[in-house]
Write a structure and sequence with these properties.
The chain is mainly α. The protein has 3 helices and no strands. It is elongated. The termini are far apart.
Length: 70
């Protein structure tokens, strides 16, 4: 079994580009290390988890129902 490092690196770069297109908080014109890039991804996922948490949904629902009563 042969292992093509250039091909693997190209595939990894392609996957990073796909991921970057899904994370709007990654600055488009800044050169990031792989670790910095992954930190942006992790932070974004944590923000999404917070937005989707049951506590956050209940809070939004309460505000909406209160505004509809007014």
């Amino acid at each position: 079994m042969s292992f093509d490092l250039d091909s693997s690196r190209d595939e990894l770069e392609e996957e990073f580009q796909k991921l970057a297109s899904l994370v709007p908080t990654i600055p488009p014109d800044v050169s990031l290390t792989e670790v910095e890039f992954l930190e942006f991804v992790i932070d974004y996922i944590q923000e999404l988890q917070d937005l989707l948490s049951p506590h956050r949904w209940n809070e939004c629902f309460h505000q909406l129902s209160h505004s509809m009563k007014s």
